[in-house]
Amino acid sequence: MNELRLTISSENLSHKGRLTLIKRRLESTSNQKTTYEFSVSNNQLTVTPDFKTEVALNRVKESIWEILNDQCEELDNSGHGCSDNYNCCDCGGHNCGCAYCFSCHACPHCLDE
């Protein structure tokens, strides 16, 4: 039987906020019979247990890569970034004065998206 083990190597695995998001993703993938967990060593993430289908493995792998490739400069240790922190309004950069306005406070990377 072919092993369907998920391993990913990335320097971004040292950021606590990204690990928090990965943990949440794996918790949402888990069910009553299977609980997915991960470990990180030498910038390599390993998910256990192995996946039952290649489709499931690829779906989770894609979502983890999306987390690792997020370049939000304000991602905190809880996994909250600009879209979480600045979600009250979006004045289009007209300095509305709201402390939670996305266009007034988001990092340059998030504003460019």
Shape: elongated
Counted beta strands = 3
Give the helix proportion (percent range).
25-40%
What percentage of the residues does DSSP assign to strands (E)? 5-15%
SS summary, helix count: 5
- Taking all Cα atoms into account, the compactness measure Rg is 17 Å
Content-based structural category: alpha+beta
SSE topology string: EHEEHHHH
Which strand order do you get reading across the main beta sheet?
1-3-2
Largest sheet: 3 strands, antiparallel
Mean pLDDT: 93
Low-confidence stretches: none
What separation lies between the terminal Cα atoms?
42 Å
Task: Walk me through this protein's architecture.
The structure is a single chain. The chain is an alpha+beta fold and 113 residues long. It has five helices and three strands, in the order E-H-E-E-H-H-H-H. The chain has helices at 16-29, 54-69, 82-85, 102-105, 108-112; strands spanning 6-9, 37-41, 44-48. The radius of gyration is 17 Å and the shape is elongated. The model has no long low-confidence stretch (mean pLDDT 93).
Please give a quick description of this structure:
It contains 5 helices and 3 strands; from the N terminus they run βαββαααα. With 113 residues, the protein is of the alpha+beta class. It has a 3-stranded antiparallel beta sheet, covered by helices on one side.
Q: What's the SSE blueprint?
A:
Blueprint (H helix, E strand, L loop, with lengths): L5 E4 L6 H14 L7 E5 L2 E5 L5 H16 L12 H4 L16 H4 L2 H5 L1
Antiparallel strand pairs: 1-3, 2-3
